[in-house]
Design brief:
By secondary structure, this protein is mainly α. The protein has one domain. 83% of the residues lie in helices and 0% in strands. The longest helix has 35 residues. The chain is globular, with a radius of gyration of 21 Å.
């Protein structure tokens, strides 16, 4: 009786679609905001350390490509299984959904160990390839050597939390990550300033917080409240299930992986044309971007299980309603965010650094970088629709188009033809316009039209 009641509460085929999406999106966005605080809070504290804060911030920024690569594999094995999991539940196949969850857990554990070991072995050459100087390498290595210990925790937390949301418990997903984020906020100043550990203290606070989050997520998924629990006998890597997870997860992997490529391209080019200070500026811009894309990310991610469920239940009219809602709300939000950044750039930059030189050089870069931010709404809406409906080919192509085929080449080309460091920042808005419109128009002409 209890189970039936629980399932009735998480039936996405009933009620207004926008309410189903927002019921998922609001707590999911809050959870993602909390998750973001793991790294953002580190940067805020390090950016206001006093003497040498710019170099510390630059050092942490150099580790972004490695952290992003780890998140790419998390998306591949974690988020890749969530649409399959939701479709199986929508079709009433809970046993199959449980196998997908167990398979995803096994893949996350194995890949976390491999990534951690590889990063330790090749730390120095990787960081210098990513744009480190002898001065900034000291800070980057100090942070990374400790941060990597928490790789299994970070991958399990992020990779498995989607399965909690897909079961209709977005508030639980929010609370599990909130525990870690609050811990990080408390521990950061204690280790950074109290114990005078600096960059190493920021990394230590992060991995302790990630461990708390991971344990809490596992506690819920193996508990009685989970509709489809994580069970020991289902934790195994199966060939067919892994192949299906790869198909849908590859799009998310490429999105994250191409972010890694772009970060490497940006850092190394900025180091050549501007030095450590501009690598630090890009660290700030990436941090602001992570904050500003959070709400729209929450909306489209909240809409994915709703669309997947209704697609599995053959309620195509509801799928179309969800796509239209995501596009409208996303466009309004990105337009508002763009205006706020242009109107008060000093406020946004000041959150992460009080270095006068960095701020003066960075405000102009900020305005260039976020020009055309509104077009990101179309990229998010199109990309999430392809993923939710299992159209892996289009999802992968448009992941590659914006980052690998537009941003990365322009990052090297524009500075070389006379734009200097500004060319690096200009590559982003160009890709937003071309990539965003191409992705959305294709989505409307293919999967949306067939619905």
């Amino acid at each position: 009786m209890t189970k039936q009641t629980g399932r009735a509460k998480i039936d996405f085929s009933k009620g207004p679609v926008w309410k189903c999406i927002m019921a998922q999106a609001v707590p999911l966005t809050a959870a993602q905001l909390v998750q973001l605080l793991y790294n953002v809070v580190d940067r805020i504290y390090l950016g206001h350390m006093g003497d040498g804060n710019s170099l510390a911030l630059t050092g942490v920024g150099l580790t972004f490509p490695i952290i992003t690569l780890i998140m790419a594999f998390t998306a591949l094995f974690g988020l890749g299984g969530v649409p399959l999991f939701s479709m199986a539940r929508g079709a009433g196949e809970n046993d199959k959904a449980g196998e997908i969850l167990g398979n995803s857990f096994a893949l996350l554990m194995v890949s976390s160990v491999v990534l951690m070991g590889g990063s330790y072995l090749f730390c120095r050459p990787i960081l210098f390839l990513f744009g480190a100087s002898e001065a900034s390498y000291v800070y980057a290595r100090q942070y990374l050597m400790i941060y990597l210990i928490g790789t299994p925790f970070s991958m399990l937390t992020t990779g498995l939390n989607g399965y909690i949301n897909a079961q209709g418990f977005p508030r639980v997903g929010m609370l599990t990550t909130m525990l870690g984020a609050v811990s990080n906020i408390i521990l950061d100043p204690v280790f950074i300033f109290g114990f005078d550990m600096g960059v190493a203290g920021a990394a230590l606070a992060t991995i302790i917080s990630q461990a708390i989050s991971a344990l809490w997520v596992l506690r819920f998924l193996t508990g009685k409240k989970a509709v489809v629990p994580l069970q020991k006998n289902r934790i195994r890597i199966q060939k067919n299930t892994t192949r299906d997870i790869f198909k849908l997860g590859t799009a998310s992997f490429i999105m994250q992986g191409t972010n890694c490529i772009v970060q490497v391209a940006c850092n190394s080019t900025l180091q050549n044309y501007g030095g450590d200070v501009y690598v630090g500026i890009m660290t700030v811009l990436n941090s602001i971007r992570e904050i500003t894309v959070l709400p729209i990310n929450g909306i489209v991610n909240g809409g994915q299980p709703v669309s997947s469920f209704n697609y599995g239940a053959k309620r195509n009219d509801r799928v179309k309603d969800g796509i239209r809602f995501n596009t409208l709300v996303g466009s309004l939000y990105t337009l508002a965010a763009w205006m706020l950044i242009v109107l008060i750039p000093r406020f946004w930059f000041g959150i992460f650094s009080d270095d006068v030189q960095m701020m003066e050089l960075g405000i102009g870069a900020l305005k260039i970088y976020f020009f055309g931010f509104v077009f990101m709404a179309f990229q998010f809406s199109g990309q999430s629709t392809f993923q939710a409906l299992g159209d892996a080919k289009h999802a992968i192509f448009f992941s590659l188009l914006r980052k690998a085929f537009i941003v990365a080449p322009l990052t090297f080309l524009l500075p070389a033809v006379g734009f200097g460091v500004n060319g690096v920042f200009l590559a982003e808005p160009v890709s937003n316009v071309i990539g965003g419109l191409a992705c959305y128009i294709t989505m409307r002409r293919t999967v949306y039209k067939k619905l």
